[in-house]
Design brief:
The chain has 131 residues and is mainly α. Helix content is 69%, strand content 0%. It has one domain. The N and C termini lie far apart (63 Å).
Length: 131
């Protein structure tokens, strides 16, 4: 029996914080992007003519940083889901199955958050910022 198989998941180590990390990263990136664009376009009317400015690059760069955090969280969730070698469905009322459920929910929310972040980046890159 390997070390991974002998590891038992305890109730104290299960937390919902990992589940909320990816949506929080997306929401933070969205809010900062929106505020940055609003401040950039609202302070000087001359900026409305520029297609790509510093805020666009900032939104894109911060988007890649946000995507890296989301992918890291998704991988951590997937590792939680694939803990052990028990076959699906994981529907028993055990700490291991709850841990696997939280892991797959984290991975799925990370995928959705990555898609939403990519759409924010895509709109910043393709649509003129101040129009």
């Amino acid at each position: 029996m390997s070390m991974r198989e002998r590891h038992v998941v305890s109730e104290e180590h299960q937390s919902l914080w990992l589940l909320t990390t990816s949506p929080a990263i997306w929401a933070g990136h969205f809010a900062v992007s929106y505020m940055c664009a609003a401040l950039w376009c609202g302070t000087d009317p001359e900026r409305a003519t520029s297609a790509i400015g510093p805020p666009t690059w900032g939104i894109l760069i911060s988007g890649f940083v946000a995507l890296a955090g989301i992918v890291f969280t998704g991988v951590a969730g997937w590792r939680r889901h694939s803990h052990g070698n028990d076959r699906p469905p994981h529907d028993r009322d055990t700490p291991e199955d709850r841990n696997r459920f939280l892991g797959v929910a984290t991975a799925l929310l990370s995928g959705l958050s990555a898609l939403a972040t990519a759409f924010v980046m895509l709109s910043a890159a393709l649509v003129p910022l101040c129009r």
